[in-house]
Amino acid sequence: MKDALSRQYFRPLGLLMFLMLFASGALAETSGKNDVFLRVTNGPEQGYLIKVQGMQTAQGFLADLGSFARALRLGSVFDGKRMQIDEAFGSTVTSCILDVGANFAVIGSASGDSPKRVLQLGAPPSASQNRVYMPVEQACRMFTLWLGRRVHFDAAESRIDAALGSRWPNASLQSVGRLGRSDLWQTEPPESSGPPADDNASTPPVNGKTMIEDIEVETRANGIVIRFSATGGMRQASFLRPDGSGILYLTIENAAGNPDLLAKTYQEGVVRSIAPALLDSGAIQFTIALNTPAYTIKSSSFRYDAAKNDYVISIMNDVDVEAIHLSEKERRIQEGLSRDADKWKLDAVVIDAGHGGKDPGAIGARGTREKDVVLNIARDLGMFIRQQWPDVKVIYTRKEDRFIPLKERGQIANRYKGKMFVSIHCNSTAGNSKVRGPEVYILGPHKTDAALRVAMLENAVITGEENSAENYKGFSDEYLIMSSMAQSAFATQSTELAQDVLRRLSRNGSNNGLGVRQAGFMVLWTPSMPSILVEAGYLSNPTEELILRDRKEQTGIAYSIFQGLQQYRASYESRVTASMRAAN
User: Fold this and answer.
1) When comparing pLDDT for 466 and 370, which is higher?
2) How many H helices and E strands in the chain?
3) Of 146, 139, 144, 143, whose CA–CA distance to 123 is shortest?
4) Cα separation of 221 and 372, whole Å?
């Protein structure tokens, strides 16, 4: 980032220093009028600090949604009128689409297999100098409801806090609700084919209810403390101590909250679950289930913390040592599963920009060279991966205009232990300038004459390589069949990867019979991993050449490819984890 301070990762000692700096106000002083700090936590003692850009106005701070999304490691694109933000925290990739000036956002899954939902906004997004802005409080609430994770703006500290570790239990794409101007938790509007006609539902409630925004369970040496964080004035509360089955109740009068986002379950510890319910009397009641088989409850108490506006339950307990030993054993098994799963994580992606150097590849009527187009796309794709997958290593077969033999490209992928190989090209067809559209190929025998012609065009580069006859001796149709059989372990993954990429890459006007195809591309013969070859479009088509030579379009193509990789990665790693659990 521009400022070295804007991206600090903190571990135990770093966390202590981090909190001390915040307590002293040293960090707050470095934030300017056109940015605020975002403090992200994504696990125990894990997180980072980064700036979110924006602008200060008389009405308050307007957050730059593109900067906000990047800080949360989300992808975004903006075409001047519409912004799309994508996330892939879980097994499903979802998108949030906003139109400039519109009072609603549309939430949907990237695969389109879930119904779209309408999220009412308290203030419409605005655009200036190709950036999209929204009041920071509204932006935080939008990300909270969409992602199912707490994103909160502390006006006193001029800081955003985001807890991205895990989605709230029961929060899903189907549970996304309305977002009002000042009442964060609204009930879900009736299903409709479009956005609501008015915004009456977002008017602040006349009864001025206190809102319960978050619940935290703090573990102590001899028990736990449960904190219910609230906004609004103090309310009368009643507390029923645990019964014989370990169930206790907290009821807060004249208060509300979002049951879907406040519901919690715990895999270990004293608390098993916290279930909220809105009562007809206007109160909110929390049913708390304790893990009495493993813990003996000695005492419980309730108090109101006026300094923090928290409703606090304290529970003292004795521990069942055998149950704890069992829990520790389960934890060690889970750690072992995680280590095994790490071996199969997609932690290295190889990006191959086709052609280069003395080999220009296809050349369009306007002089557009394939080698230049695909190098830009490859660099942009690598940038998206580094930004949004900081745990994934990016390997390029070439990052500049130089010639790399086809055989060596696959060897580079294997040498650096890549887990995915993406080769990027542009297509061309002689005598037919009307054919247009992207294509994605996997290694295999040519199924059609068209696939054969494309493979021959891309493979022809070997004739310009030194000692090509010796280096490629035996690379015949028979060798292709043997190579395809050797890569059969990756055939399913390659096909799925190709399908995910093609779904994102497809654009209006394609007439080349879209679909994943097989062909004997030599660059795909060597890599021992799921591998695809992307033909971004036809330079022989005058209209498509204009698209492919445009720098902004190249970035859009790269982002579409990344979205396909994102969908594949989410489903692949979810399957690997599930299969390893089943095996153990």
Assistant:
1) 370
2) 13, 29
3) 139
4) 62
Beta strands 210-220 and 255-256, pairing class: parallel
Alpha carbon separation from 510 to 165, 436, 517, 539, 551 (Å, rounded): 41, 5, 15, 13, 20
Q: Is 204 helix (H, G, I), strand (E, B) or coil?
A: coil
* Radius of gyration from C-alpha coordinates of the chain: 28
Q: Which two tokens stand for residue 505?
A: 């890459």
The amino acid at residue 63 is: A
Q: Cβ contacts of residue 165 below 8 Å, gap of 6+?
A: 41, 42, 43, 46, 149
Contacts with 218 (C-beta within 8 Å, 6 or more apart), sequence order: 224, 225, 226, 227
Q: Are strands 420-427 and 348-353 parallel, antiparallel or unpaired?
A: parallel
Distance CA 300, CA 55 (A): 48
Say which amino acid occupies 417: K
Quick: pLDDT tens for 479-525: 444 444 444 557 778 888 999 999 998 877 776 666 677 655 555 55
Q: What is the rounded distance in angstroms from the CA atom of residue 213 to the CA atom of residue 527?
A: 50
List the beta bridge partners of residue 159: 37, 154
Q: How does DSSP classify residue 363?
A: B
Distance between CA atoms of 11 and 16, rounded to whole angstroms?
A: 8
Where b means 16+ CB within 10 Å and e means fewer, 255-280 reads: bbbbbbbbbbeeeeebbbebbbebee
Task: Of 209-223, 233-247, 269-283, 446-460, give the lowest mean pLDDT range.
Answer: 446-460
> What is the C-alpha separation between 69 and 78, in angstroms, rounded?
12
Residue 233 burial (CB < 10 Å; 0-12/13-18/19+)?
Answer: exposed
